[in-house]
Amino acid sequence: MMKETIKVNGMTCGHCKASVEGALTKLAGVVSAEVSLENKEVTVDFNEEQVTVEQLKTEIEDTGFDVA
């Protein structure tokens, strides 16, 4: 199990938080995703054998936010 914190630009509200967390937790291998609007980041717990950090970043960008 790995934990990665990814900086994300453009998240400003609860809807943004829910969008990013929801998109990430749908990916196979992601155990949890927690957005901090204050710190402009998301912390993801995931199984590195099932999903890569690059896939996490791509999913965030596909949701409409910029990975810093």
Automatic annotation (TrEMBL):
Annotated TM spans: none
Pfam families (UniProt xref): HMA
Domain of life: Bacteria
This protein's UniProt keywords: Metal-binding
Gene3D superfamilies: 3.30.70.100
PROSITE patterns: HMA_1, HMA_2
Residues of the HMA domain: 2-68
PANTHER family found in the cross-reference section: P-TYPE CATION-TRANSPORTING ATPASE
Name by which UniProt lists this protein: Copper chaperone CopZ
